[in-house]
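It would be a great kindness if you could assist me with a short task in structural biology. I am sending you one protein, given as its amino acid sequence and as whole-number tokens for its backbone shapes. I would ask you to consider whether the tokens describe a fold that such a sequence might reasonably adopt. The full record is reproduced below for your convenience.
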Amino acid sequence: MLRDRARQLSERYRAHRPTSETIRDETDALAYAATRMPATYAAIVTALGRLDEQSPEFAPKRMLDVGCGLGAASCAAATVWPSIAEITLLDRSALFLNLATALVQDSGLRATIEATHADMATPRAGEDAASFDLVVIGYALTEIAEADLPRVVDQLWSRTSGALVIVEPGTPRDHDRLMVARSRLIALGAHILAPCPHQAPCPLPANDWCHFSVRLPRRRAHKLVKGADAPFEDEKFAYLVAGRSAGTPPRARVIAPPRVSKAGISLRLCADKAFEETFIPKRDKARYEKIRKKDWGDPLHAPAEEI
């Protein structure tokens, strides 16, 4: 039964059906937990890890998990920052809120959990714009109508006193929507912390898009529900981190899997307001030994010529 529900869920998500139409009962929610929650957790914890890597002094105490689903972002944030003491779960689905509250509490998190039944796209009149050190919206902005994106981004930013993290599917469509959010955040005075190493417009060609990948193991139940034999899966995702403080951006970021050949290693970089390709030959042993350890998504803190 769960396998059938999982297949139906996948079909609905590929058709961009909203969660309210996709998750209809507890069985659907359990199918989602088995098929999608491990991947969304892996993507979100990776994106949050990039923020922690770049701003090691950042230690959030209060978090808002917007469009929380089953609480994957809350669990991911508490993994990266055990300092989190208060978590507010916000979702328009009472089913998700109830299950997320139970799952997050049962996970052993020490944070105080508060559940808020609300639609992020339609704030209630007089709603308290409480400020949170960390606001995370994971795989939920993708459901917002294009015309509503600027208004929703404004709301998210107004709740943020430290950092706002948006994680979305790694598709061209969702990259384009993240660029809308990015432009709006910059107009609001936000500092883009990751993955972009600059505030300039995205330099990628029109037929390309910025996304990353994380590999996660599949447990037995995961394989059974998905009808899969492979012991792992690769989750493609796109993300954006904006902060109230500028921080120290990296010189560049690796935005594609490094290409290794007998002659050396080639990297595609977003660097200094531009897209560039660089090649480090094996014969340049000192530089090659440093660069060969870099992976897709990693920052570079010096020009490739000087590594």
Observations:
- Residues 252-306 form one domain.
